[in-house]
Write a structure and sequence with these properties.
Keywords: Membrane, Transmembrane, Transmembrane helix. This is DUF4405 domain-containing protein. The chain has helices at about 5-25, 30-35, 45-65, 100-105, 110-115, 130-135, 140-150; strands spanning about 85, 90. The longest helix is centred in the first third of the chain and has 25 residues, at about 5-25. It is mainly α and about 150 residues long.
Length: about 150
């Protein structure tokens, strides 16, 4: 199962559990109302205080995912940042310039620029990372262009 299928399974399990919880509260509603509206007894203040603390803890847990920043592991396999897939021993990374790619892969920079449909005024000294953000292409596109050029030869 992939992560999306596991997500679906997790979703339906939570739907079942919340349905059972709702049914349980519905069946026991009279008891809940009687306990809440009943006569105060010795120790009921402590119980109410603990209930408020418990409710505050639940609310804090519920909103904590919204308050914590998202951390990204940029060294993982799935990340395009710092990714260095190789094609026949040629490594292409976003930190490389078009000139670096030309020297490493032996593919003319102008060919890469034309294949990516970039403006001809782009300098071969520009790095791929900023170019990909500005012109919305992926580093893998550059790898495919190199692969295509090498296979064409």
């Amino acid at each position: 199962l992939d992560r999306h299928e596991w997500g679906s399974i997790h979703f339906w399990i939570s739907v079942v559990l919340f349905s059972v919880l709702s049914l349980h509260l519905t069946v026991h509603w009279r008891w809940i109302v009687n306990v809440a509206a009943g006569q105060p007894r010795e120790g009921s203040g402590l119980r109410a205080g603990l209930g408020i603390v418990g409710l505050a803890a639940l609310v804090a847990l519920a909103i904590s995912p919204l308050l914590t920043p998202v951390e990204r592991d940029l060294t993982s396999k799935g990340s395009s940042f710092l990714s260095s897939h190789k094609y026949k021993g040629i490594t292409i990374r976003g930190s490389m310039t078009l000139k670096n790619v030309e020297e490493t892969a032996e593919v003319p920079a102008i060919y890469i620029i034309e294949s990516l449909k970039l403006p001809e005024s782009i300098s071969v000294e520009e790095r791929l990372g900023p170019l990909k953000r500005k012109y919305r292409f992926e580093i893998n596109d550059v790898r495919e262009i190199v692969k295509e050029y090498k296979n064409r030869k």
